[in-house]
Each structure stands twice: as structure tokens, then as C-alpha cells.
Give the backbone structure.
Amino acid sequence: MPGTTIVVNPNEDVGTGADPQPGSLEDLYLRHAPEAVRLAFLLTRDGAIAEDLVQEAFIRVAGRFLHLRSPQAFDAYLRKTVVNLCMTHHRKRKVASAYLDREIGRVGRAEPMSQTADVETRSELRDALETLPDRQRVAVVLRFYLDRSEEETAATLGCSVTAARSLVHRGVQTLRDRLRSEDHDG
Amino acid sequence: MDDLETRLKDLFEADASRAPLVGTAPPMLRPRVRRRQVRSAIAGTTAMVVVVGVIGAGAWAGLSRREVPAGNDDPMRVTVDRFTIDVPSGWTALDTSFTPLVMATESETCSYAAEGVPVTGGATDAAQEVEAPSEERERCSTEPIPYPAGLPLLQLTQRDVADIDGTECSSRLGEAREDTTSNPFSGDGSGFYLALLPDVTGLPAWPVGLEHGEGPCGEGSYARFSVGDESYLAFAGFGPDVGSEQRDALLQAIASMDVHEATRPDRELPIAGPAVFLASGELDGTRWQISAGIALDARMTNEPTAWAELVSSDGTITDTLTVPSAGGRPTGASIGVDDRQIAVALVPDGLDAAWESDDGTVTELTTAAAPAIMTLPPTPFSGRVGWAVAPGTTGTLARTRTGDEPTPVAGPSASAFPSPIDPVGVVVDGPSDVTSSFAYWTTIERSGDAWRLDVHVGDEGEVRGEADLVWSGLVPRSTTAADGRSLNAVVVDVSDRSPGDAIIALAFVPTDAAELEVDTGNSSSGIGLAASPRHDALRLLGETGPVDLVGFATSLVGGSFGQTATVSALGANGEPILQTTTAWRADR
């Protein structure tokens, strides 16, 4: 239904450096992309992938919703789309990883080499975050990085407020247990 | 915030600072967004095609319909968009907030000049390439489509609802009645209509009282108001024989309306017509409601589905139900809260009765027992369909009547047309006068590599010809008619750019047409905007003779999509010599 209009004029120049028109795609990108890229980066830990995912999210949201009720709606849709794309990316990565593991297993598993070194450079907390299920990690990032309310977190994850609260709680608890365990082992 | 949470926050902020810096939008972003918008608009027109088809089919075929019988036994309180209202006993509440999704809000017209090379008529596998018009030769303009009656959201009615396009305001979605001064209700008829007024500003904030007067819905009581940044129209009408009790019931319901500043969270919307509210209630202090309606199958099977939605006011209870078509067989499932289960079923037309099977016990569903039974006239996609909603615990509807005994329905597969395909009877009576307007629609079905196209040609609502064309591998194989006015079809295959994509559009065009104009503006995702055809692939398959058939292509990718196209042909002096409208849909 009509509301805020996102105007995409195919003849409009992009990236010329001129001040974007309010409400234009360029304007929306400047306003929302930096935060979206930071969110995607926290969820993927890869700058290039984060940029790609945010760009894809923009295409999906701006392409689908030609008119939005309000600018806030664009932000919410974009955040949700970024989160969904990041989780899809994780799923694909897991599939690819499983495939690689299987293929490597056939020809003889290589030494874990650089992976070990890489892991060692990470903080315990970052390591522990990596072990969280995708939705828990997303919930924790939304809650403690973006300071999103439980309602907003629930809306982004497409679940109830109770479920969102539970995801955050379980995520933090898992991190706590994991860190405690590592402290104990260490 | 405890220590761990503080550490998390610090870690996130430190890591986020390492994220790439974002400057201006990448140059490729805009064209990709534009393409997505076009696809989105095209996908939106799928439902538009349904509306067009249903309206046309109803007028053409004049079929008898079972209807949504008016009235629910139990009073309900329901929410649509920002509005929560009591539904008195004996009234039906319709959620028409989906309907605007199939209403175009803008129309974009593009014209271009192209020269086609007609090919010899008759069965052929050949399709000749025609040079695609360049963008430089294309002219486009966009016009808003006014809706004086607004985009309908919510209605209370006591009439049987048979048409998905009719409202309590007027018989055409969004449009004003032809006679805006007389009472639209006769006898003891009455109703309430609430609509969003796009692009209207400056109205007083809710609450406002109803005032008697004339307007787009005729004579009645109107209120125009704003909530937040959006404007709304409310209309209540009463026939001359409406009693005080009936009048009071509706006025009390309107008075009960709560308006919320915040809109409901956006949902994944089905491409659907109006939904009928079936039940509402409270569970642990949370109010819930169930509504059901007809939607297109999101899995792109060309079939309508029954769908139902259960939501609660706080979002803690939510469930959706989709009942896919099963060929000629009725199918159903149930949805509800605890013991309040409601069966929603898709019932093909032709059944004399629907029966509920519960552990072998068969119970006939009567109109009285069923909150809603509706059989729609034919859709352009899959023939006649209907749906029934009935209370029950199993939700199984699988019986039809033969004599007095219920007999299981053995329905054929919906896609049981043969493959590989031979031409299936081309029965075409093309327009007798190509200068007159005519319209037709197509049904596209796909089975493997085979495509099937049903074409109905008519004039002023009268069916004048039908064709059943089949292709394999997207190559037209059947195109002849003896009278030299063969109905022809164009299938444009752009699979070299996007595997599997196909665009289909049809038109009879006089061979002396000097210019063609294509309006594909009848598209909407609820959000307006038209598809902009780029004609980036065009093949002409026609015949020498009085008419040629021309196809127009827009780039489509994936999914289920549809389009309507109006083709106007202009003579050498720019005079209009033909106008056709094509509604089409393709699935992959």
C-alpha cells in the first residue's frame, strides 16, 4: 500500500558523488548500508561477504517494496533480510564444509595447520560465539550490539518475543558455560 | 548488564569497527534493484490476472455459484490492519486488506516501433527472430490510477458474497459507483466498508463521526479520517427497510472500532482475495482470530489453494494453513486453538455436497453447519474451484454425492495432459473484424518440457473462440485455423540468459500496423508500480493474411509470474486500428 516511495529511476546516475535525493535508492543506501554491513560483518566475519550480502539485501528489499509505510519499515526489512541472508550463508557454508570434509576424507585429511593458528589468535569469547547456533548468535548480536529490544529481535528473527528472549538467554548461558569450562580446562 | 554482556558489547563494537566502510551505492545496485522491482511487479500481477479472469469468467459463463452465506452465528471481535471491530451475530466480516495487493496503483505505458517479419501460418517449429526495439526507440509514461473508493481493508456484510471484486461500496474494486447520489442498498440490506485512501492528506485524525451524505459509495454515512500518516474512508449504508435493531447492531459495531496507531507487523502475504473471518476468541487473555480465503499456490502449480491464518493480538499465537489443490479431489486440513478447530477445504466445483469424514463416520456439511462455503467462477488458470469451511476436528472433506450416497471423489491429476505433446484441438474463431476490441486470456500449464496454453477469445464479454495449444520445449507447434485467421501464440524463450525463463504474450495485429503500443501497467504488488517491458527478446510467429500475432517480452526470472498487456496497433497515420488485452501467467 502506498506510503513512503522508494524511487528508482533507471536513468538516474548512481555514485556520482552528488547529494542524493531524499528517498532515493542512493539516499537509502547511504543511510542504512553502513549499519547493515557492520551487522553482516559480525555475523559472517568476512568483510567482502558482508558487503555482498548487504547489497543483495538492498536489492531484495528495495526491489520488492516499492512503497513502504515508513522509513522505519525499510530499516526493519533490511535488517531482517540481512540476518536471513547471513543465516543462509552459514547454512551453505556448512554444506560446503561438509562436502569438503568428505572429499578431503577420501584423499586423506590434511593437517589442520593454519586453522589451528587462526583459532589461537581469536579471543575465547569470539571462539565461543562461533559455537553458538545461528539463531542464538544472531539474537545475541541483535541484543548486545544493536541494542534491539526483545520485540525488535523477535520481529527480525520471525519468532515470538518469548522465543527471542529464550534465544538470547540460552545464547548467553552457553557462552558463560563455555568460557567457564575453558577457564577450568585452562 | 553483567560482565559477560559488557564483554560481548565491547567485542561486537571492536569487531564492527573492522567492517568495511560503505560509501556510495555501487553502480550496479540501481539496475539490479530496478530489475527486481519489475519482477516484483510482474509477480504481483499474477493475482491481478486472477481478478481479471474471474470477472471475465463470471460474465462470460454465467455460471451458478454457491456463495459465502451471510452471517456467523457467534459474535466476534476481529482486527484488520489498524482496526479492531466487533462483528455482530448474523454478520460476516471480510478481511479485504489483501485485495489492494492486486490493484494497480500506477500504469506505465511504453510504446515503440518495431518491424516484424510474418512467417507462414500453419503448424511449424520455426520462429523468426525480430529485431528487438532499442530502448532509445521506446517511450514510456506513468500515470497514477485513481481509486475514489479507496483500497478496501475491512467490511461487514449481511449479503452473500459471491464476487471477489464486489464490495459494500461498489461493484468494482476501488472505483466509485456510477450513481453516487442514490442509496446503494435496497430492502433491508446494509453494510460497512472501510478503505485506505492512498495519496490523500489533510484529513482530521480519528475519531470522527459518521455524517450522512453522498459519495463514491452512494448515499449513506461517511467518515474520512487519518491515522498516523495514512488516510481512510469509512462508509455505512442502510436500505430503506432496515429495522432499528439491525441499524443499531451495525452502528454499535462501528462504535466499537478501536484504531491503533501502530500498524500490524507485515506478514508474508498470500496472493489472495478477501478472507472471511471464521472465529475469534481469547486464550489466557490473548485475543486470537482465524480467517480463510483463496490464494494462488505459492509453489507455482497454477492451482488456487485454500489458506487460513490464525493470529493473536500479541503475536504469540500464529499459524497458517495452506490447502493445495489435489486435482478433482477435495482436500482439507484444520486450524485452530485447542478445541476450537476449524476445517478449511478446497472443494472443486461440481460437487453437490461436501462431506466430513471422522473416523469413518460421514457427516454432511450443510450450509447451516458451515460458516462459509463458496464456489468461485472459473479462474483463468485451472477451471472452477471452490472452497468450503466447516467446523470439525479432522478437517477431512472428501466426499461427493451420487444419489443419496456419498461417494469418494476420484480426481485426475491436475497436470494430466499428455507429454510429449501433440497438438490438442485448435478450435479458434478469430475476430471477425480485427478493428474491434476483443480480449482473451490464457492458461499456461507446464508439464516437463511441455507447455499448454488455453486461449479464450471474446468480445464484450462474450466468448467467441477458444483454443487449446500445446508446445513442447517452448517451441510453438500448433497454430492453424482454416479460415485464415488463425489464433497464434508466441513463446519467447530467453533461457540463454536465464535458464528456464519464458515469456508469453499474444495479440492479433493487422499486418499493416505501423506502430504497436504495449501497456503492461496493470501490475502491482500492493505497492504499485508498473512493469516496464524492455522487449529485449521478441519473436514473431504469425501468418500472412489479415492478422499477425505478435508477442511481447519482458524479462522474467524465476517463480510464478503473470502479466497483463494491452496492445494497441496504430495505422500509418497514427490512427488506432486495434486494441487487445492479454492476461497471461507462466509458471516454472
Remarks:
- Residues 569 and 575 of chain B are 8 Å apart (CA to CA).
